[in-house]
Amino acid sequence: MKSHTEYLWFNTQKRRELVNITDTIEHIVHSSGISEGFCLVSAMHITAGVFVNDEEDGLKSDIWEWLESLAPYRQDYRHHLTGEDNGDAHLKSLLIHHQIILPVTDGKLDLGPWQQIFYAEFDGQRRKRVIIKIIGD
Amino acid sequence: MKSHTEYLWFNTQKRRELVNITDTIEHIVHSSGISEGFCLVSAMHITAGVFVNDEEDGLKSDIWEWLESLAPYRQDYRHHLTGEDNGDAHLKSLLIHHQIILPVTDGKLDLGPWQQIFYAEFDGQRRKRVIIKIIGD
Amino acid sequence: MKSHTEYLWFNTQKRRELVNITDTIEHIVHSSGISEGFCLVSAMHITAGVFVNDEEDGLKSDIWEWLESLAPYRQDYRHHLTGEDNGDAHLKSLLIHHQIILPVTDGKLDLGPWQQIFYAEFDGQRRKRVIIKIIGD
């Protein structure tokens, strides 16, 4: 069994941002030399997420509006008694989930035609990490 | 390390449908010859999901009602400016999640007594795929 | 490839409870002797969840309030026609998700600085299981 581990750093300009990382992950899979296996893409911070969906601007706006409606920014989260103001970012991370597993087949990401991989930043403007770990043969 | 990859095709009669795929996955695990490992079950389309829960009709109705309340069908998603009308299906897919990892132990799915595996179609009546990939020994 | 499987049993005093299992999982990873791989932590019951977030009391209260607002306890779930009264627990499990994959690097859980692992019990006061399965080398 082979394994390959890399860490991606993000420091988004806006507090909330979606970053399409499909090509980056494809490149890492290629450089790993693993042809059959699983690729884990997992946020290492608890106010960010990773998900798979469509690269379409309207939909991305819909996703932000939806996340805000189900896990809204509020002043009065109890978490804010610690001095933080990112309670919504923790809940958005739980809602969208912080990780995905991508199948690797014949040395490539085995994705459907419209599947794109996104890093979702919910409390950015500072350095945060995502682990990419591939295991297989 | 061994790996085994199959693709399941679905073409549901209704636009929204739950399909219990537990026996199908168990059969694929058996035919893989892998006795210890992980089985990924992942929708390859962005308007479908895969989840584990109970095979009980009342609960399945509750799940549909709940999905509709949190990710409702609406005319006015921005995504619909592309001509699509499936914005809710994208959000339902994000909510329920599009994939699961099943443990394989002693050549079998290592599930709890009531755990059943479902393919959740949110925009069907056309051919869509799910990847089943098992790695292990 | 090596694999290591353990089962954790929970029998919570309260019906709803969060249990921080980070140290337990770290110990299992250490005892597995696996240095590079993936660790699956997956609830084997359909009214419990497993997630990664922050060990902070205020936030944990926020998470409970949020789960209750999005997947509330109600008398009138159709599932309750079976005699059960835990419909909300099934929906909370779907919302928070029932499993995570943890990367194992250099024989340790490869977690970010604030990532803690929680077992979320939504219908406790009885014995329930979580599978921990590690594969790698």
Task: Please describe the structure with a list of short key phrases separated by commas or semicolons.
homotrimer, alpha+beta, five-stranded antiparallel β-sheet, 8 strands
Radius of gyration of chain A: 16 Å
CATH topology of chain A: Jelly Rolls
Q: Mind summarizing the main beta sheet of chain A? A: 5 strands, antiparallel
Mean pLDDT of chain A: 98
Chain oligomer state: homotrimer
Detail the poorly predicted runs of chain A: none
Query: Level of helix content of chain A?
Result: 25-40%
The largest contact between protein chains, plus residue counts on each side, is: A-B, 33 and 32 residues
Our measurement of the CA-to-CA distance between the termini of chain A, rounded to an integer number of angstroms, reads: 5 Å
Describe the global form of chain A.
elongated
Order of neighbouring strands in the sheet with most strands of chain A = 1-8-3-5-6
Number of strands of chain A: 8
**Tally of helical runs of chain A:** 3
Please trace the helix and strand order of chain A, writing H or E for each element: EEHEEHHEEEE
Classified in CATH, the superfamily of chain A is YjbQ-like
Total domain units of chain A: 1
CATH level 1 class label of chain A: Mainly Beta
CATH architecture of chain A: Sandwich
**By helix and strand content of chain A, what is the structural category?**
alpha+beta
β-sheet strand percentage of chain A: 35-45%
What does it look like?
- The structure is a homotrimer of 137-residue chains.
- Chain A is built from 3 helices and 8 strands; from the N terminus they run E-E-H-E-E-H-H-E-E-E-E.
- Chain A has 137 residues and is an alpha+beta fold.
- In chain A, a hairpin with a 2-residue loop joins strand 5 and strand 6 (108-109).
- The longest helix of chain A is centred in the middle third of the chain and has 14 residues, at 57-70.
- Chain A starts with a strand and ends with a strand.
- The mean pLDDT of chain A is 98.
- Chains in contact: A-B, A-C, B-C.
- Chain A binds chain B through residues 1, 36-38, 51-54, 56-59, 61-63, 66, 70, 95-97, 100-101, 103, 105, 110-115, 135-137, and chain B through 1, 3, 5, 38, 40, 42-46, 70-71, 77-82, 87, 90-91, 93-95, 97-99, 101, 129, 131, 133, 135.
